[in-house]
Design brief:
By secondary structure, the protein is of the alpha+beta class. The chain is built from 10 helices and 15 strands. The strands form 3 sheets. The protein has a 6-stranded mixed beta sheet. The chain has a 5-stranded mixed beta sheet with strand order 3-9-8-7-6, sandwiched between helices. A 4-stranded mixed beta sheet has the order 1-2-4-5. The radius of gyration is 22 Å and the shape is elongated. The C terminus is likely disordered. Its EC number is 2.3.1.35, 2.3.1.1.
């Protein structure tokens, strides 16, 4: 299931000494060709880390030969020295794998406002380069973990090509993007412009629609690399579908591993006048601390869903709203529906379906009941 499942890629993950725990903390992914097409999407936060600034420039021409990722430090809000560190990191990788520094993407994750221990980073790059192999994907996925409890990997097989991916992320998950580092590889023969289009479509429906705690990171990066090693030129619609499957799997793994969460919640809004309305309503519900407290306490309190809907600018009539929780319609036409006691919230999965009865558009946001300490203190409060 790893990023080296696709032909033409090698990877490694090592303990470079960036973390004080002696756990793996540096990963290297190398595209061995014959093609080196690349695409990326980044955080929309206006405060961005040095690696994001560097990687935006590196991928601008649609070419990447390698990606280096470290956990144990975000290299964010570190000023000009942080940019110099990102450049030095790319240069070290380039020397190790025989490419240009401008063809190396750099990704970092960890504490904001602290310089990276560059001696450990640079020696770690040399060590990782020596360990590169077609079996190194799993080690790389472990090396990018921070508060993650498990590595996150995904795989999709197309007609004659493979797409693999790895991700890290557990907290600060919010749309556009989540707090994540993601590397996706494929051996399909696809141009950088087409890969960029496919990636934007896939992330818009997956990573952009998960929301754990409403916080957006400074380092969010999703990179896609294509080696062309399979020799297969894919149908772009088919490729986008398979790419979205990989992104969807990774996105769900991110939500499922969020720190302290006990429920994975799908908030689906239907009957909206526009997709924008559907997304606004779904996100408002997904970010409601009171709603999350209710789910944490296994209380199908649909009043909190209606309260969240009411502060949006979406088109709806209050006396036409329907809410269904795990298959039980607890609110019908803005009023009392079936008994809430019929709703079973003891499992991990929770589905909340809202029908606005205002149109034909729909959207889904995936979240969880994570609100840190607020949840446990207020789980029994009802409004």
């Amino acid at each position: 299931m790893s990023i080296t499942a696709a032909q033409g890629f090698a990877a490694a993950g090592i303990a470079a000494g960036i973390k004080s725990t002696a756990k793996a903390d540096l990963a290297l992914v190398v595209n061995q060709g014959p093609r080196f097409d690349a695409a990326a999407v980044f955080t929309s936060n206006r405060v961005v880390a040095a690696p994001v600034i560097w990687s935006r420039r590196a991928v601008a021409d649609g070419v990447l030969h390698a990606v280096v990722l470290n956990s144990g430090g975000a290299n964010a809000c570190t000023g000009a020295p942080g940019l110099e560190d990102a450049a030095a990191t790319a240069k070290a990788v380039a020397q190790s794998v025989d490419c240009e520094p401008d063809d190396v993407a750099v990704c970092s994750t960890g504490l904001i406002g602290v310089r990276l221990p560059m001696a450990a980073v640079l020696s770690g790059i040399a060590a990782a380069a020596d360990q590169l192999s077609a079996d190194g994907g799993d080690a790389a996925a472990h090396a990018i973990m921070t508060t993650d409890t498990v590595p996150k990997q995904a795989l999709a097989e197309g007609e004659g090509y493979t797409i693999g991916g790895m991700a890290k992320g557990a907290g600060m998950l919010a749309p556009a993007l989540a707090t994540m580092l993601v590397v996706i590889t494929t051996d399909a023969e696809i141009s950088a412009p087409d890969l960029q289009t496919c990636l934007q479509k896939a992330t818009a429906l997956t990573f952009d629609r998960i929301d754990s705690d409403g916080c957006m990171s400074t380092n969010d990066t999703v990179l896609a690399l294509a080696s062309g090693a399979s020799g297969t030129i894919p149908d772009l619609d088919d490729f986008t579908t398979n790419l979205a499957r990989v992104c969807w799997s990774l996105a769900r793994q991110l939500i499922g591993d969020a720190e302290g969460a006990s429920h994975d919640i799908a908030v689906e809004v239907t009957g909206a006048a526009s997709e924008q309305d559907a997304l606004e309503v779904a996100r408002e519900i997904a970010r409601s601390n009171l709603f999350k407290c209710a789910i944490f306490g296994n209380d199908p309190n649909w009043g909190r869903v209606l309260s969240a809907i009411g502060v949006t600018s979406a088109a709806f009539e209050a006396d036409e709203l329907d809410v269904t929780m795990n298959g039980v319609q607890v609110c019908r036409a803005g009023g009392v529906g079936d008994p809430r006691e019929l709703v079973d919230l003891t499992g991990r999965e929770c589905q909340v379906l809202v029908d606005l009865h205002a149109g034909e558009h729909k959207a889904t946001i995936w979240t969880n009941d994570l609100t840190y300490g607020y949840v446990k203190e207020n789980a029994e409060y009802s409004s």
